[in-house]
Write a structure and sequence with these properties.
Number of helices: 0
Structural class: mainly beta
Helix content: under 10%
Number of domains: 1
Strand content: 25-35%
Largest sheet: 5 strands, parallel
Distance between the termini: 26 Å
Radius of gyration: 13 Å
Number of strands: 10
Mean pLDDT: 85
Strand order of the largest sheet: 1-3-5-7-9
Order of helices and strands: EEEEEEEEEE
């Protein structure tokens, strides 16, 4: 897992969270916590070919997606995902969820979240 904590930033880097291809392994994942920011980063979360382990980006506490670009891809078993927890925000992030087979990609928030319609493509 790659973690951004406190006030760290992904800046304009590109990241790929690969999905698991073996049932005993997990997919790639990233955590943004504290006041960290995805900034202008580009993130791809691949789906998994096994029942667990798709790529994941998770935001916690006061972290923000800022102007990040997120693509969640699907594979036969589980789709890649972005999760927003606590007081984290999607801000001006762009989210593309590509679905196929059993479960597509997802961008979700527990509690309440309003994503700008223009920023989310399903």
């Amino acid at each position: 897992m790659v973690s951004f904590i406190d006030s760290s930033s992904a800046d304009s880097a590109t990241f790929l969270n690969e999905g698991a291809t073996d049932p005993s392994s997990d997919g790639g994942s990233m955590l943004f916590a504290g006041d960290s920011s995805a900034a202008n980063g580009i993130f791809t979360n691949e789906g998994a070919t096994t029942a667990r382990g798709a790529g994941l980006v998770q935001f916690r506490q006061n972290a923000t997606a800022d102007h990040g670009i997120f693509t969640n891809d699907a594979l036969p078993a589980e789709g890649g995902a972005v999760q927003f927890l606590d007081s984290s925000t999607a801000a001006e992030g762009t989210f593309t969820n590509n679905g196929t087979f059993r479960e597509g990609g997802a961008a979700a928030r527990r509690n309440s979240l309003t994503l700008p319609r223009r920023a989310m493509r399903l």
